[in-house]
Amino acid sequence: MLTALEQQDPKVAKLIKEEKLRQDGAIRLIPSENYVSEAVMNATGSCLTNKYAEGYPGKRYYEGQQITDQIETLAIDRAKKVFSADHVNVQPYSGSVANMAAYMAICQPGDTIMGLALPEGGHLTHGWKVSATGKVFNSVQYKVNDDTGMFDYDEIADLAKKHKPKVIISGATAYPREIDFKAFKEIADSVGAYLVSDIAHIAGLVAGGVHMSPVPYADIVSTTTHKTLRGPRGGMLMCKEELATAIDKSVFPGMQGGPHMHTISGIAVAMAEAATADFADYAQQIVKNAKRLAEKLMEYGFDLVSGGTDNHLILINMINKGIKGKKMSKALDMANIVSNCNTVPNDPASPFNPSGVRIGTPAITTRGMKEEQMDVIARFFDEIANNIDDAQVIEKVGKEVNELCSAFPLPERFVNFDN
Ligand SMILES: *Cc1c(COP(=O)(O)O)cnc(C)c1O
After folding, report:
1. Pairing state of beta strands 194-198 and 220-224?
2. Is the pTM of this model over 0.90?
């Protein structure tokens, strides 16, 4: 039986099938990517895509909200439980919009915000100059410590004292170490700033109890829903009751129009998954896998920023191997290992051809890979780095990658609701 898509639009159907094969046949190490369950896919690809629901449950601008109100309330209640949050908004279209909505809830244009610089591991939306967040606000950027590659909380406190920001942002997109949200809150309090914690990358680790939660400390917590949290592409904001109205108004009508109800139904499903014991096991295994992979890569002489990892992410500085980040990530991709090139702290190279490669373990952990497979993957990295210009060796590794992947087919269900 052909699906409607296959009948009506074979071109797109074929491309989607090819993308599925690519995802299944590759070792996906991009730390922001994952595989969602069939249940999340079903919810996301449902008739909810047809519904407008501007407003919030019980206060909508369009009629016909008998079902949508229940779905959004379910997503909110489940998310509140997973993160022990007082208030949750599940409407942000994605992490970037969630961040802008967070700042706009507590700042005026021109106010000072302070976040981690992009080349040091921060996100564009933490005030980087090409982002609207770096244009609308007066942005001050902190760095990681030159020697350790980690946050130096005294340095950050000094910078905060100097610039007196209205908002301090704690969170990162390429930081391999645990973030001390309590320390950030103390810094924010010392200068009377709000603390916004962006856990886009680590939300699944927080939900699974393997990373400190910012919820007790931060004024606002922002996240994506599609990275380690393993839900549909979307965003969420969490806050204490005092800021609930400001946050809701800032998302709608401040930043957005109608919420994507199909995504919100997928978030509801993902939040039920995130509350299971299986999800906590998955979160633990992500970190175990990352630590093992880091250890093995170092044994092969790879230079890791900060000397290892506490979370799901590893940043490899390729300078000592004499290979540029992009050259390495391209060679890996030829061998069906998908990563991204990345700046390293204090990168001497240009951001368009940076010195690092960023990898992470969320997607391969979802597939069921464990420490043993991390040893194999580290060996692939070594073989590729040692034969960076040898297409034959790279092709041979690519075949081994396909074999490894076929031994780890994706289950339809990742979590057990009976436990
Ligand atoms: C991914 C990410 C975002 C942005 O999320 P999008 O959904 O891509 O807009 C924001 N902050 C951090 C820290 C991220 O890693």
Report:
1. parallel
2. yes
Average pLDDT score over the chain: 96
Q: How confident is the model at residue 410 (pLDDT cuts 50, 70, 90)?
A: confident
What residue ranges define each of the domains in the chain, with the CATH number in brackets?
Answer: 41-274 (3.40.640.10), 287-406 (3.90.1150.10)
Token couple for 340: 């991204």
Active site residue 52: yes
Q: Tell me the backbone φ, ψ of residue 138, rounded to 5 degrees.
A: -85, 110
Residue 197 beta carbon below 6 angstroms from any ligand 1 atom: no
Determine the residue of 91, 118, 120, 123 to mutate for testing ligand 1's pocket, defined as the one with the most ligand atoms within 8 A of the Cβ atom.
123
Residue holding tokens 């009976």? 418
Q: Which residue has the tokens 């998954």?
A: 273
Catalytic residue among 72, 120, 198, 248: 198
Rounded distance, CA 341 to CA 315, Å?
9
Q: Which of 107, 119, 162 is nearest to 144 (CA)?
A: 119
